[in-house]
Amino acid sequence: MTDPVSIRVTAVSLDDIALAEGRVVVFVGEDGKLDQLSRRVNRLTRGTLERLVGSERFEKLKVADSVSLEYPAGMTATAIQVVKLDRKPSVLDARKAGAGIGKVAGSEDVLVLAGNLGNPAAVASGIALRKYDFSAHKTRNGEANTVDVTMMLSKPDVAEAGIEDALDSARAVFFTRDLTNEPSNVLTTSEFADRLSAMSEIGLEVEVLEEDDLEKLGMRTLLAVGQGSESPSKVVVMRWNGGGDDAPLALIGKGVVFDTGGISIKPALNMEDMTMDMGGAGVVAGVMRGLALRKAKANVVGIVGLVENMPDGKAQRPGDVVRSMKGDTVEVINTDAEGRLVLADLLWYAQDRFRPSGMVDLATLTGAVIIALGHEKAGVFANDDEFADTFLKAARMEGEGAWHLPLDPAYDEALKSRVADIKNTGGRAAGSITAAQFLQNFVKSDTPWIHLDIAGVASVGTETTYAPKGATGWGVRALDRMIRNKFEN
Ligand code: BES
Ligand code: MN
Ligand code: ZN
């Protein structure tokens, strides 16, 4: 697995600054005042820092942005990165500042002169998240992408646990990103299930349901999606039982390892992006990993449906009618609206077996949500406004974009089928909402439920604050935050 940084802490030692190899990072607030550590850097470089801080360049710098002074005289460092950040930064600013450090860090060591800076763990989190790079299939990079970071702190022992926690949380995100970035010939349904099963080593209970098990359970809508593929469909159940007798929170993920569209085949242009159509399952896996790493005091069950949507002689056809585990029949108008068929059975299975206190599903479900919200925010749908607000608040705290969109029975009209109980597409208008309405059909009205349409945010074509191009791991931190806030005892 990708693990791009090691971060250790050390006590303040002014004499080590002149001889530090690699990059040295200092923080200067908007007031321009230098602390003990930056004063030392300033003295070593004969006032360079003071000149920068007095300049228009520094004045115009936004909070958390930085200027790099390369090959400074008076120090062995190859660069001094001056970050504009107050001594008591907000968590978001501190994390953003860290991301700025991670973004420019190469393979050289980094010494972060944090001193008594507030929220050092958030800085560490930002460094790690942004330093990530998916290079598993680059043959010529070796170990060059791992960076050793040292944070020089006034009270290293006080900060250490928080920094370790931040790194564990980043590792959970990397697990999701690696899965989501992995090409579909590597991350087959079996490989995916194997990687999840391996998490039993960190204390998760993992169970893999095979096709004959799913057949017995009556999960026909899920199985129908995978029946045109050589790869067997699987459902993986991951349990973290840290919360005593509480009913669990259920996390459900769409894990379409590749979505060709099936017989309703997609056009060639950008079809390669559909390697990320298992992003919802990837997020569920990352959250579960995070819970185990930090030994959360909560009961959470993660359930993912791993299938491949391919067109062969056994593939389902448009017009087919299939029976869901719930018992409702579905007319498959478009085989490319496959995610909702997978989720329908998973949602029902989760409620039937676990009686969860709440249920959150994540899916790269519709192109329409990208038209509505672009790549900044995921679509949030819920049958319970209080639950939705709990999630939205957690997402805000973690800087992950999310926007509440409506559910309304009025949209059900679009899903009426001539031959079955419901059809799987509702036309072009409000495509994300009709998809959510379809899912709601499989949610009991007394189960608090959130549906997250992450098609626009799971993997993006341009870098973001916390991730390079590709998989973002969106949602891992927001869900972990929500669990910390509301589901832990
Ligand atoms: N996996 C796609 C949605 C998607 C599109 C994810 C773009 C990420 C980026 C989903 O299975 C799909 O094909 N949805 C169709 C639904 C339609 C046939 C009703 C869509 O959005 O076009
Ligand atoms: Mn599709
Ligand atoms: Zn899909």
From TrEMBL:
Gene from which this protein is expressed: pepA
Name assigned to this protein: Probable cytosol aminopeptidase
Enzymatic class: hydrolase
Role summary: Presumably involved in the processing and regular turnover of intracellular proteins. Catalyzes the removal of unsubstituted N-terminal amino acids from various peptides.
A matching Pfam family: Peptidase_M17
One GO MF term attached to the UniProt entry: metalloaminopeptidase activity
Cofactor section: Mn(2+)
Catalytic activity as recorded in UniProt: Release of an N-terminal amino acid, preferentially leucine, but not glutamic or aspartic acids; Release of an N-terminal amino acid, Xaa-|-Yaa-, in which Xaa is preferably Leu, but may be other amino acids including Pro although not Arg or Lys, and Yaa may be Pro. Amino acid amides and methyl esters are also readily hydrolyzed, but rates on arylamides are exceedingly low
Residues annotated to bind Mn(2+) 2: 254, 259, 277, 338
Domain Cytosol aminopeptidase: 334-341
